[in-house]
Automatic annotation (TrEMBL):
Organism taxonomic ancestry: Bacteria, Pseudomonadati, Planctomycetota, Planctomycetia, Planctomycetales
Biased composition (Polar residues): 32-41
Name recorded for this polypeptide: HTH HARE-type domain-containing protein
Keywords: Transcription
Keyword Ion transport: no
Chain intervals with Basic and acidic residues compositional bias: 15-31, 109-121
Biological processes, Gene Ontology terms: regulation of DNA-templated transcription
One Pfam match: HARE-HTH
Residues of the HTH HARE-type domain: 52-126
UniProt region (Disordered), positions on chain: 9-52, 108-127
Organism: Symmachiella dynata
């Protein structure tokens, strides 16, 4: 059972109780908490080639395709060939579509892609 010390409050002028096993707020506790650490053996991961970006993987898929593909078809082929997969994205085909359009717009004739039909892309033969 904790001990209680009765002291007079200088502000209120009343007697109040304070546990003697606690330190008053104005006293600083200089003891530091120690943290136990466990040593884990860190093993190096297998050296793997860096994962290609989605647009580079799409260029590779399109170069092997005989016909134009949609962004969704490219994403499916990339996953099947294990070139690229979406780790957490909900609409990777929309992202790929936007990136391809951005490259076509920014690079013009130097783009690796060409828009063949609505939502269908092919490789730029002049590239």
């Amino acid at each position: 059972m904790p001990h209680v010390e009765v002291i007079e409050c200088p502000i209120l002028g009343e007697h109040i109780g304070r546990r003697t096993d606690e330190k008053p707020n104005n006293e600083r506790d200089d003891t530091m908490a120690t943290q136990q650490t466990t040593s884990k053996k860190v093993t190096p991961e297998k050296a793997t080639a860096p994962r290609p970006s989605v647009i580079n993987a799409a260029a590779k898929v399109l170069s092997g395709s005989k016909e134009p593909l949609t962004a969704k078809q490219m994403i499916e082929q990339m996953a099947a060939e294990k070139l690229w997969n979406s780790l957490s994205g909900k609409t990777p085909d929309a992202t790929l579509y936007a990136e391809i359009l951005q490259e076509i717009q920014s690079k013009g004739n130097d783009s690796r892609f060409v828009k063949v039909d609505r939502d269908h892309f092919g490789t730029n033969q002049s590239h």
